[in-house]
């Protein structure tokens, strides 16, 4: 038996009928037609499906669409303002914070949430903020650089400083945890 969900997606109110078992990631891709949110592992391990639910980063493969009823969802498509990219999107572009690009929407959304919560994170704080997202192609150096660059742009040019701890530039989850 289908249920009606009323969800604000990228600022636009929607009402749709969905099966109660429909995951938010499938709702966004198949019902809302927003394919920027990627399905990676379907087990909440990779973070490719990360979106903002009421401003908080969540993995859309671990949330049912009915749980988003009455709430606000922002996808990677909703970060830009018209043709102007969000500072995080622009920084990932400028710093080549991607390789194949499959994981990029999830990283962008996780980074946007991180920088909303902590405008000037250290490298350790960036690693912690991105630890639920995995990239199978890069060494994470450009992803870290992109987040630092976005932080600087969002702070009016004040560059966040890399922490002087450890030599690995990858998030903790990718470092073997």
Question: Would you summarize the structure shown here?
Answer:
The chain contains five helices and five strands. The protein is of the alpha+beta class and 177 residues long.
Give an account of the 3D structure.
By secondary structure, this protein is of the alpha+beta class. It has two domains: 3-78, Beta-grasp domain (Ubiquitin-like (UB roll)); 87-172, DNA polymerase, domain 1. The chain contains five helices and five strands, in the order ββαβββαααα. The chain has helices at 24-31, 87-94, 104-117, 123-130, 141-154, and strands spanning 3-9, 12-18, 50-53, 56-59, 72-74. The chain has a five-stranded mixed beta sheet, sandwiched between helices. A hairpin with a 2-residue loop joins strand 1 and strand 2 (12-18). The longest helix has 14 residues, at 104-117. The relative contact order is 0.14.
Strand content: 5-15%
Order of helices and strands: EEHEEEHHHH
**Number of DSSP helical runs:** 5
CATH architecture of the largest domain: Orthogonal Bundle
What's the arrangement of strands in the largest beta sheet? Answer: 2-1-5-3-4
Radius of gyration: 16 Å
> Which structural class do you get from the secondary structure elements?
alpha+beta
Q: Spans with pLDDT under 50 lasting ≥5 residues? A: 160-177
CATH class of the largest domain: Mainly Alpha
CATH topology of the largest domain: DNA polymerase, domain 1
Shape: globular
Please provide the count of β strands: 5
Kindly state the mean pLDDT as a whole number?
90
């Amino acid at each position: 038996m289908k249920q009606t969900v009323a969800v604000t997606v990228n600022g636009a109110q929607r009402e749709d009928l969905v099966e109660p078992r429909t995951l938010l990631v499938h709702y966004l891709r198949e019902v809302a037609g927003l394919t920027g949110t990627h399905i990676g592992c379907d087990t909440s391990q990779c973070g490719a499906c990360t979106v903002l639910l009421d401003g908080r980063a969540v993995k859309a493969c671990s949330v049912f669409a009915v749980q988003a009823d009455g709430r606000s969802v922002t996808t990677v498509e909703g970060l830009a303002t018209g043709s102007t990219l969000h500072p995080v999107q622009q920084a990932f572009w400028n710093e080549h914070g991607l390789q194949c690009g499959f994981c990029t929407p999830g990283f962008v959304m996780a980074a946007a949430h991180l920088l909303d919560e902590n405008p000037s994170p250290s490298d350790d704080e960036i690693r912690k903020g991105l630890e639920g997202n995995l990239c199978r192609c890069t060494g994470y150096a450009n992803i870290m650089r992109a987040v630092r660059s976005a932080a600087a742009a969002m702070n009016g040019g004040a560059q966040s400083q890399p922490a002087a701890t450890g030599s690995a530039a990858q998030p903790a989850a990718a470092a073997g945890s």
